[in-house]
Design a protein that fits this description.
Length: 373
């Protein structure tokens, strides 16, 4: 049996009061209800994350944040339908497969959240690959035919190769989201910004609902530091973003470079992480504490007395340089979201990642680099 995740202190009570006020002012009654739900989850004694798994947390934290996001989103959707605010779209085979794939990925993650390591990383990889494989086969419109890169466009012209490349992208993106998840607002911050931009461009209530629940979770995540997305959140939200991103790209809403800028950090981080693990002769499936966010957090720990503040500042800084640049460019109208000029911003983000990775590695103990699981 685990003890409860944490015991309430005066500081925790002050944080909760601040979060309640902010959530209520920003999102009204739904915000207050979800905030209290998140607080209740942190007081439970099950689905507790290992303290050292992500290398950025020094306290026990619940892994059920993602499950709370999906449960709250469903509750908001049905409330909107019953109250007449939302007019439900007619169900089609495509939409059923689309959302069934997302909830299936979320379900796989939830199983591992409730019973840690019940599914091996390889088994999860296989199952998620099968889910995406079926989805892409049933909804071929999600498979890009051209993205503006001459050599790659030639390869994508062949259907089976395009299917394989898209499948690898989807599985890789979901795992990139999972790798970067932590109690620091990094991933929920990136996803909240992405959903906000999706909503502003398309106007779908679905994006608005998930933007609200992700935004509330980000608020709780950053201030309290006591709740992770967990595998349910990483796989569920990761698959939702991957599939919706492909759909919006195929519909001509966004260019590939803009989407690359929007999700720069998880995409760059997983490519760099897999490469360095391979070079070091380590399994690409075993986690370590040598991601850029781990390195940044290590230095912030020496700058801030508060462990939660060091966590939160790590997330805020990385989100600002990743999705934050996309949001800034979007609001300031640097280019159209369909423009390929965003590739220059993505190139700058890649450069910033490499420079920051090198600089933050200086004076960092070797013992901080790897966590054996």
């Amino acid at each position: 049996m685990f003890d409860k995740v944490f015991k309430f202190t005066g500081k925790d009570l002050l944080k909760l009061a601040i979060m309640i006020v902010m959530a209520t002012l920003m999102f009204g009654l739904p915000g207050l209800i979800m905030l209290l739900l998140l607080q209740w989850i942190t007081s439970q004694s099950y689905a507790i994350e290992s303290v050292d798994k992500h290398g950025i947390s020094k306290i026990g934290a619940s892994r059920l944040g993602g499950a709370a996001i999906f449960a709250s989103a469903l509750a908001l959707y049905f409330f909107g339908v019953f109250s007449g605010v939302i007019e439900p779209s007619p169900l089609s085979t495509i939409s059923i497969i689309f959302w069934l794939s997302i909830f299936s990925c979320m379900g796989i993650g939830l199983i591992d959240d409730l019973k840690s390591n019940s599914l091996s990383p390889r088994m999860r990889l296989i199952i998620i690959s099968l889910i995406f494989g079926v989805c892409l086969s049933v909804i071929p419109i999600l498979i890009p035919q051209k993205i503006g890169i001459v050599g790659l466009d030639f390869v994508l012209d062949k259907a089976i190769i395009a299917w394989i490349i898209t499948l690898v992208f989807c599985v890789g993106f979901v795992n990139a989201i999972n790798m970067a998840d932590g109690a620091n607002g990094l991933i929920p911050g990136i996803i909240s910004i992405a959903l906000a931009i999706f909503y502003m461009e398309v106007g779908s209530f679905t994006y608005a609902i998930f933007m609200t629940t992700c935004g509330l979770f980000t608020l709780f995540n950053v201030i309290s530091g006591r709740l992770f997305l967990g595998d349910a959140g990483a796989y569920g939200l990761g698959s939702m973003i991957a599939l919706n991103g492909l759909f919006l790209f195929s519909a001509g809403v966004f260019s590939a470079p803009f989407l690359a800028v929007l999700f720069a950090y998880p995409c760059i981080d997983i490519l760099f992480t897999v490469s360095r693990r391979r070079i070091a002769g380590r399994s690409i499936f075993l986690p370590d504490n040598d991601h850029l966010h781990n390195r940044v957090h290590f230095h912030f720990q020496g700058w801030f007395r508060s462990k939660t503040l060091a966590n939160s500042m790590t997330g805020v800084l990385i989100v600002s340089c990743s999705s934050g640049l996309a949001l800034l460019g979007y609001t300031e109208a640097w280019w159209s979201v369909t423009s390929n000029q965003w590739a220059w911003v993505f190139l700058a983000q890649c450069t910033m990642y490499l420079v920051a990775f090198f600089v933050t590695g200086l004076a960092r103990p070797i013992s901080q680099h790897v966590t054996e699981q």
